[in-house]
């Protein structure tokens, strides 16, 4: 799944994970045609897995050692046997005898070696190179201090892949289910050269489906059953048609006229269809939050946002229950902290990480305490009023709704606070956030895999995605311990992460607002879809039309 850094991107990218076209299941036909028709809010930007900027649906066409099954659990993929060394640093994967590319070529161990090296080659410009951290020499390669050829993977023989790690990685199996780590066919890359991945036919696929009718542009494309897929016997769908629908009302009309099997609902539409039998809500491990700029170019503003009492006052002034239930009304929920609920469970007790990260008076609405914190902060700063701007990407209607709500809530509860709204195009928000040109930023983060570290790595001082430049040595040390010293001890590692998450809550270095939930109308003839809150969000492998 993509890491979202601006509110405007979420609707487009999320729905691309659930995308499609018109034409298909004729209402008059006696037997279902096994064609699924889905809406997308944006075109596919690339089909080159080494260059992708998100992996919400690519697990359907690219498969690695594992794939993501139900409830975020790993399921069998191209490997039919896996061996882990006692020190947890060497993994041996045996590739299935019947694993083939969509063109009939045999999938070999060398295809995995080539894939990882190609993705890590600087000229490829992969935006996901950091995901190779922890794999032997991965960090050195990412830092430009070692060559891609030194990454810890080699082919023992034609069907055996050996992966070596610098340290145990607690979530390694889940990581290997991520499409980024799937094989790539060197022969095909060389055959097509510059044309490679520019059209659906200039690509081969290792998953249950292959892409057709995609030419780099255009508002329709399809996933077609891959008859060379090793587990093709369980794949019931013949085709998944995608159609770009940018207007929610248009999408609803297409659904009502039996042209689509799904309709993505806006907040207003949810209110009208909440009691409809076709109404479905799908949660995502995405937390919408406020980023503070601790390195603001304006020294006075920098002092304000660096004051913990001020940040805590802001957090306590937001009635998240009202925001999620009445303002948004789409099933989004109140978070307990920076890490999403439903993402990971305590290895010892089975309790949700989100419950354990909770800190009193951090994500609750407490206007009286907010006023006290505000007064204390103003006194410490020697000022009587605060003027700040909040930036958000304006290509999502929720951005305007949320920023307007925040302005009202904060100005009502905190005397002397003036909040200026800056709703800008998503591309502008992205550019300004990366260059540190903001005061407050309405931002998103979505988990790439089912482990708290997918969230907790963001606030680390050295992380380039830590746009507000918050820095805390103790926090950095806790995350370092979780990733290194305690990586092979699940329970100890878990406690490192709990302490780190509680620190974020206590200091309000990031202020969580709500956890996203997305609403759809889904035709009741659509069965067998697998939805996950992280990674490959939608799997069509077992889906069918009844």
Description:
The protein is of the alpha+beta class and 546 residues long. The protein has helices at residues 7-16, 109-120, 138-142, 172-176, 186-192, 248-256, 267-273, 299-305, 308-316, 320-328, 353-356, 367-381, 397-413, 426-434, 453-456, 473-483, 490-507, and strands at 35-40, 66-68, 74-76, 79-84, 90-95, 153-157, 160-164, 209-212, 220-225, 239-244, 262-264, 279-292, 386-393, 417-424, 440-446, 510-522, 526-527, 530-531, 538-539, 544-545. The strands form 6 sheets. It has a 6-stranded mixed β-sheet with strand order 11-16-12-15-13-14, sandwiched between helices. 51% of the residues are buried. Mean pLDDT is 91; it is low at 1-29.
Largest sheet: spatial strand order: 11-16-12-15-13-14
Number of helices: 17
Helix/sheet category = alpha+beta
Q: What percent of the residues sit in helical stretches (DSSP H or I)?
A: 25-40%
- How many beta-strand segments? 20
* Biggest beta sheet attributes: 6 strands, mixed
Q: Radius of gyration from the CA trace?
A: 24 Å
The poorly predicted ranges are 1-29
- Distance N terminus to C terminus? 29 Å
Q: Bin the strand percentage.
A: 15-25%
Spatial shape? globular
| pLDDT averaged residue by residue | 91
What does this entry show, briefly?
The chain has helices spanning 7-16, 109-120, 138-142, 172-176, 186-192, 248-256, 267-273, 299-305, 308-316, 320-328, 353-356, 367-381, 397-413, 426-434, 453-456, 473-483, 490-507, and strands spanning 35-40, 66-68, 74-76, 79-84, 90-95, 153-157, 160-164, 209-212, 220-225, 239-244, 262-264, 279-292, 386-393, 417-424, 440-446, 510-522, 526-527, 530-531, 538-539, 544-545. The chain contains 17 helices and 20 strands.
């Amino acid at each position: 799944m993509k890491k979202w850094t601006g509110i405007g991107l979420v609707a487009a990218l999320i729905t691309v994970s659930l995308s499609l076209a018109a034409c298909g299941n004729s209402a008059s036909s006696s037997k279902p045609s096994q064609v699924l028709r889905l809406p997308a809010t944006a075109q596919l930007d690339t089909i080159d897995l080494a260059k992708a900027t998100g992996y919400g649906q690519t697990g359907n066409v690219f498969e690695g050692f594992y794939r993501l099954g139900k409830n975020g659990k790993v399921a069998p993929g191209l490997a039919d046997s896996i061996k882990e060394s006692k020190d947890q640093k060497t993994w041996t994967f045996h590739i299935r005898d019947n694993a083939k590319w969509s063109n009939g070529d045999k999938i070999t161990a060398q295809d995995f070696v080539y894939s990882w090296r190609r993705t890590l080659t600087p000229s490829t410009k992969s935006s996901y190179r950091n995901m190779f951290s922890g794999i032997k020499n991965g960090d050195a390669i990412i830092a430009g201090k070692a060559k891609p050829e030194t990454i810890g993977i080699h082919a023992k023989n034609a069907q055996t892949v050996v992966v070596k790690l610098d340290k145990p990685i607690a979530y390694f199996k889940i990581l290997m289910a991520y499409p980024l780590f799937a094989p790539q066919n060197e022969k095909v890359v060389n055959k097509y050269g510059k044309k490679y991945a520019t059209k659906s036919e200039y690509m081969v696929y290792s998953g249950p489906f292959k892409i057709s009718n995609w030419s780099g542009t255009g508002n329709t494309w399809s996933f077609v059953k891959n008859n060379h897929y090793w587990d093709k016997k369980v794949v019931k769908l013949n085709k998944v048609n995608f159609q770009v629908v940018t207007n929610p009302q248009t999408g609803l009309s297409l659904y009502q006229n039996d042209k689509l099997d799904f309709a993505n609902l806006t907040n207003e539409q949810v209110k009208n269809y909440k009691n409809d039998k076709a109404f479905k809500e799908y949660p995502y491990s995405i937390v919408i939050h406020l980023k503070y700029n601790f390195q603001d170019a304006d020294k006075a503003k920098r002092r304000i946002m660096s004051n913990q009492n001020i940040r805590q006052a802001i957090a306590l002034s937001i009635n998240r229950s009202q925001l999620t239930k009445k303002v948004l009304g789409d099933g989004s929920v109140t978070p307990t902290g920076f890490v999403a609920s439903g993402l990971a469970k305590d290895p010892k007790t089975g309790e949700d990480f989100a419950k354990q990260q909770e800190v009193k008076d951090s994500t609750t609405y407490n206007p009286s305490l907010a006023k006290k914190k505000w007064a204390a902060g103003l006194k410490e700063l020697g000022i009587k009023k605060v003027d700040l701007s909040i930036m958000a990407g304006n290509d999502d209607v929720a951005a305007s709704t949320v920023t307007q709500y925040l302005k009202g809530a904060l100005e009502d509860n905190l005397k002397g606070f003036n909040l200026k709204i800056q709703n800008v195009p998503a591309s502008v928000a992205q550019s300004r956030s990366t260059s540190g040109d903001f005061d407050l930023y309405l931002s998103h983060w979505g988990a790439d895999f089912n482990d708290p570290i997918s969230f907790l790595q963001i606030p680390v001082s050295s992380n380039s995605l830590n746009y507000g430049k918050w820095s805390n040595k103790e926090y950095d040390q806790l995350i370092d311990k979780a990733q290194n010293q305690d990586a092979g001890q699940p329970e100890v590692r878990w406690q490192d992460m709990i302490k780190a998450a509680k620190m974020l809550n206590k200091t309000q270095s990031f202020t969580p607002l709500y956890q996203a939930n997305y609403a759809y109308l889904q035709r009741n003839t659509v069965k067998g879809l697998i939805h996950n809150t992280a990674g490959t969000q939608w799997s069509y492998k077992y889906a069918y039309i009844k």
